[in-house]
Each structure stands twice: as structure tokens, then as C-alpha cells.
Amino acid sequence: MNIGHAAAASGVSAKMIRYYESIGLIPKTVRTEAGYRVYSDQDVHTLRFIRRARDLGFSVEQIADLVSLWRDRERASKDVKAIALDHVGVLERKIRELQEMASTLKHLAENCCGDSRPHCPILEELASEEPLPVQSKADARFSALRGA
Amino acid sequence: MNIGHAAAASGVSAKMIRYYESIGLIPKTVRTEAGYRVYSDQDVHTLRFIRRARDLGFSVEQIADLVSLWRDRERASKDVKAIALDHVGVLERKIRELQEMASTLKHLAENCCGDSRPHCPILEELASEEPLPVQSKADARFSALRGA
DNA sequence: CTTGACCTTCCCATGATTGGAAGGATTACA
DNA sequence: TGTAATCCTTCCAATCATGGGAAGGTCAAG
């Protein structure tokens, strides 16, 4: 199977397959006489594994660890779980960050008429010298808004 | 005021100030005879505006638009609001993505003993051929985000 | 034998930010 | 005044995962 076929079968683009090979995430493949890479079903299986891990937001580095644990029949499941939970922590931190941004911004936007007049609490807030009034997601009050 | 001072006063690093200048987000400053950049309080105010917009996750491109609207006394507040709401949409899409990842992963991790034995549902799932079982959590956390 | 669809390698770009090197300017202090 | 520390300057590189594209070789079908 050539790289295009492996890409279609695994959901990983040919570009990325070459990249993963170049950084050592996957081993170098057999080549045809003409230099074409050749992939087995097992290779495609590994690529699909990688694809799924990417879909869950794991970094390439973490995926390398996951693949090596996957291959290791003597692995301890706690090692896998540790990677997963660590990543969950990162994701949740990121989610909280974005939620703070979104809710702050939504509150600002709600207080902006959104008409053709220039008055705008969003700009006022950005131009203000005071700390940004972060709306924690549990806090639905508009207390800190100026010009509302 | 030199760049270090402006950086400290605005919360934007000297590196980033130079970068913002290089991409045209802020105009080129006056220089001393020795070539040192010189900043006014007004410049610092603009930098702080930029800093706040970055803290809310706006892209540099959006910030350029926001700054120009900020400067424009004839602006229509709907133009500002449109940028803000567009960004809220992007943030919320991102949040949903991350939440799906986190909840899928947490679910998998909950079913992994996390001991020294090799059996591991997380790896099994990654190695599976079936579609990833996304744990859609369109529940309390989610509606808290848009419900406000 | 040509055409089109592959494949190869190599370089570049993204976005925002940081790091660092080489070298000049300024400042503080003895 | 000398000198050392701390600034400033520009330029280049790296991050992370991915895509775009060029130049050129290969392969299969018509």
C-alpha cells in the first residue's frame, strides 16, 4: 500500500505521515525500488491509533508515549492513565480560560447597543485602566460593567 | 520613555512591542539619536488596550480592527459588537471541542484501573476501529455558558 | 508515447511568543 | 575617568502541527 492509500485508510494525511516518520513517531517504512513508501495494514492500524489520539488533543510527544505503551504488553495501566489524566487537567485548564474570556466578552457585548452610534462599552472596557472584570461562569451579574 | 519602561507599564513585553511595530499593529515610534524607541503615555495606553484585547483571546488581526475602531470617533458600536460576538462564537466552538475531548477522556480514564496490570480501556479505545464514543456533555456547564 | 495521477524531497508559511547572539548606548558607582 | 552592569538595537531561530507548493521522478491507462 502506498502513502496515499495509507493516508485515506487511516485518516492521517500523507504530509503528516511523512512528518511523523521524520520526527521518529513512526519508524521508517520499507520502500519500493523507486523509493515509494510501502505500508502494511498494521502500519495503518498504528496510524489510526495516532489519529484518534490527536483527535483527543494529545500532543505528539504524549502520543509517542501512548504508542510505546500500546506496544508494550508488560505496561502498567497506571502509566497510561497518568498520561490521560494529565491531559484532562490541561484540557480543563484551557476550557476554564476560554470560558472566562467568552463570558467576560458576552457580558460586555450584551451591554453594547450594537447600533450606528459610537458609544461602546466593549471599547471602553478595553481602554480602561482597571483590571478586567472577569465574569466567572457562575456569576451572571453585570455589576462590574461601566457605561451600561 | 524607553521600550523597557513602556513594557513594564503596559504589560506587553519589549519583544512583543517590537513585533507589533514590525507587523504594523502599532506605528513606528520616534527614536532617540542612538536609535532607542521612545514611548509616550498615550502609546502605553494603546499597548495596554492591546494587552487587554489579547487577554480576551482576540487575534492580532481583530485587535487591529478594534484599535482602529477605538480611534474612530465616528465608529458604529455594531461594528465593535460584531467583532466581539464573532470571537465569542469562536471561543464557544473551541470550548465545546475541548469539552468533548476532556469528557471522552475522563470517561475512559474512569474505566481504567490504573494499576500495574496491562489491561487498559484507554489504549483499547485508541486502538479500536469503531468511531470514538464522544461523551456529549451538553448539560449544566454548557448551558451555563450561553444561558447568562 | 502521452497524459494524468501518483510519488519523492525540500523549502516556506502559519500565530504569537520567546530565546539568544553580537554589538552599541547609557547609567551607576568607585 | 574607567569600568561594569544594564539597557538598547537588529537579526536569526525555535516553538507546534499542519498545509502549500515547486521541481522532478514513477506508474498505469489509453
Structure keywords:
148 residues; 57% helix; disordered C terminus; elongated; 6 helices; mainly alpha; homodimer; two-stranded antiparallel ribbon; DNA-binding
Provide a brief overview of the structure.
Two copies of one chain form a homodimer. The first copy, chain A, has 148 residues and is mostly helical. Helix content of chain A is 57%, strand content 3%.
Measure the end-to-end span of chain A: 64 Å
Structural class of chain A: mainly alpha
Kindly provide the radius of gyration of chain A, computed on alpha-carbon positions and rounded to a whole number of angstroms. 24 Å
Q: Report the mean per-residue pLDDT of chain A as an integer.
A: 89
How many β-strand stretches of chain A?
2
Approximate shape of chain A: elongated
The number of helical segments of chain A is: 6
Q: Could you walk me through the main structural features you see in this protein, from its secondary elements to its overall organization?
A:
The structure is a homodimer of 148-residue chains. By secondary structure, the first copy, chain A, is mainly alpha-helical. The first copy, chain A, has six helices and two strands. A two-stranded antiparallel sheet of chain A has the order 1-2. The radius of gyration of chain A is 24 Å and the shape is elongated. Chain A starts with a helix and ends in a 21-residue tail after the last helix. At the A-B interface, helix 3, helix 4, helix 5 and helix 6 of A face helix 3, helix 4, helix 5, helix 6 and helix 7 of B. The first copy, chain A, binds a DNA duplex (30 and 30 nucleotides) through helix 2.
